[in-house]
Amino acid sequence: MDRLPKLGLPVIIGVILLIILIVKSTITIAPGKAGVLYRTFGGGVVTDKPPMSEGFHWVLPWNKVYVYNVRQQELSEKMQVLSSNGLQIGLDATAWHQPVREKLGLLHQEKGERYITDVILPAIRSAARSVVGRYTPEQLYSTKRDAIQEEIFDETKKILDKQYVQLNEVLVRDITLPPTIKTAIETKLRQEQETLEYEFRLEKAEKEAERQRIEAEGKAAANRILSASLTDKILQEKGIQATVELSKSQNSKVIVIGAGNDGMPIILGNQ
C-alpha cells in the first residue's frame, strides 16, 4: 500500500512530461499563412523544401516554426519628396504586396520577420524619391499622376523581385503641394483655360465670317450667271407660259395680250 503513492508520482510526472512533449511537437498553421522550419540540430532554416502549408503538423520539440502571412497585404506610407526644381512634395502611397511563397525560407533566412519595414518600405521610399524628382510641381498636380504611379510601381518591383517579395500594385492616393505653389498653379491653369476658350470663340467667329463670305460670293456668282442668261426672248417665253397658267385659274380676270412693255401681256382682274 505504501508503494502506490511512490509509484503514482513518477507516473503522473511522466504523463505531464509526455503531454508537454506532444504539445511542443505539434503546430497548427492558420489559413492564409505558411511556416518556415528551423532545425536546431539539422542545418538551421530549411530553404530547399516548400514551406509548411495550412493545417496540423508534427515537429520535433527542439525545432521551431516561424509562421508568415502569405496573403496580399497593404502598406501605406506618407512621405516627403523633392520635385525636379527642389520643392518639397507630400506623397501618400499604398503598396499591395505578399511574400513569394516558394522563397519563404530564403526570405526568413536573409531578411527576417521584419522584412516589411526593413525591405519593402525603404524600396517604396527610394522609388518615390527617384520618380517624383523627375517632374515639376505643375506636372505632379495636373497631368502626370498616372505616369508617376506606374513608374513608382516599376522601380519598386525591380528592387523587391530580388528580395523574395511579390509587389502587386502601387497606388498614389494623394500628392500635396505647398499652398503657395498650388495657388499659383491653379491660377495659371485657369488663365490657360480662359485663353483656350477665347481662342475657340475667336476661331468660331472667323469660321462663321468665312462661311458667310463664301455664301455671299456664291450668291453673287449665281446672280451674274442668271442675269447673263435672261435674254428678252427668254423673258417673253416665260411671260407666255405664266399667262397660259393663269388663264387656267378659276378666278375671273381679263388678259390683254401684247399691252405691256416689250409686248408682254397685262393681267387685269377683279380678285
UniProtKB/TrEMBL annotation:
Record keywords: Transmembrane helix included?
yes
Name where it's found. Answer: Membrane
User: Gene Ontology terms, cellular component aspect?
Assistant: membrane
Coiled-coil regions listed: 188-224
Q: How does it sit in the membrane?
A: Single-pass membrane protein
Q: Which residues cross the membrane?
A: 7-27
Q: Which Gene3D superfamilies match?
A: Band 7 domain
- PANTHER family named in the record: PROHIBITIN, PROHIBITIN 1
The protein's name: Prohibitin family protein
Organism equals: Sinomicrobium weinanense
